[in-house]
Task: structure prediction
Amino acid sequence: MELTINSTKILHNGIEMPRFGLGVYKMTDKEIAVEAMVTAINGGYRAIDTAALYGNEREVGEAVRASDTKREELFITSKVWNSDQGYDETLRAFDASLERLGFDYLDLYLTHWPVPGKYEDTYRALQRLYDEKLVRSIGVSNHQEHHLEKIMATANTKPMVNQIELHPHLTQKPLRAFCATNDIAVTSWSPLARGTLLMESTLQKIADAHGKTVAQVIIRWHLQSDLLVIPKSVTPARIAQNASVYDFSLSAEEMAIIDALNQDRRTGIHPDNITA
Result:
């Protein structure tokens, strides 16, 4: 598969989702956030991943309107936060997110975490939003295999996406295999392990061999692993650098070397430890 910045993955409902996008977690300074998003969109990014928790949905909407790209050419994702989960609560949370964004639909809406006793009803609400064509696709974030099995046991529409922490120190191969079997696309959050992988000597050797940075090698690894990836940056040069990963490819041997770096090490909380 030849990859470009415009490459998409076809979700199981036929919707095309960009394989590469911008994550906007912790972009809380309004002016900096909008500038970063506009820079990314005008630089070829076609997906932005936000969430109610991030507190920057208004900025996402503003950036889209200030960019050179039409709304319908972009893929915007948001998520319902834990305290807003439940059936009716999720429907209200979605309306609030849409109002903040200033849009009349979302491309993808996710359950942020599997809150015990609530995530099933939350997903039912997402399914209603999908049936009413207010969202083009629905999915989950941070869901383990047992969470997905519980949802799919009763869902009319199974999740199209599962967004999980994933990087060379946490390759999540069993969960990825389960998602692949069930035609659920996987998006990697914290794809650079919050920067902790940037000094990894093995990755540096591969980067030197290609004349690339470690971050670029890691992003390329995600893409060649059939993962959707959303690196975050507010620095214009880094935003451009993260997107400059289509003029080289990793060999099968290099991919295997990176896979072998797995330590099952998380930078965030384990989904089974979420209580509310």
